[in-house]
Predict the structure.
Amino acid sequence: MNGFDYKNFYDKVGAINGWDFSRIQCHSEGVKWDFYHEVAQRCKQSHLLLDIGTGGGEQLLTIVNEVLLLVGIDISDSMIRTANSQLAKESNVRFLQMDAGKLSFPDSFFNVISCRQSDFTALEVARVLAEDGVFLTQQVAEGDKLNLKQAFQRGQSYGEVDGLLKHQYIHDLQEAGFKEIQSFEYDVTEYYRTYEDLVFLLKYTPVIPNFGQEEHDFDRLRSFIEENGTAKGILTNIKNEVPDDVYD
């Protein structure tokens, strides 16, 4: 993934689709973390919430009634335009284009900060998080969609040691001053119902960088489906890492 232009990729995706994958027909089997449900469980009606890497805002808007104010930021202009286009009468939501490494908020401003599958800077998170505030993040593990990456011989974190990212996140959070850090990972089976569902995933996520632009990509995809097609659908996996942190 070295050299992959994430910002340009997300700008294109944001303009076309936002971060909405509800049209994909797929299901998973096993224990799966519902990230925004967990975020909501840690919120109070008086809280201010920051969501880093909010994308098109689809998921953040599902917990609009749980807090006093929600602020979603994303580095992609088109993602933020898509998010703002989805606002209806929600008066307690703001979507802003912003670099997660340079947060334009006062110190100790937010009670809860969430970050789902997006880059964050631990020192900046610690700076804007209130004392006894909570930071939740869910990140893609190296072993996510592993059989797909093996089929294409490339992919997000392909070839990297499994668990290395989690250890780096925890190290950065400790260095930033987080005192109570809990983490776990889950690895569940996932089935995509049709060829089109899987192609949609590959086009609008960076699982396989530049999917469709290399000469043999669709031949590899057809071979992958032949090898991994089941009565339940096309088999792959979801593997995520979830640190849950309290700043003191």
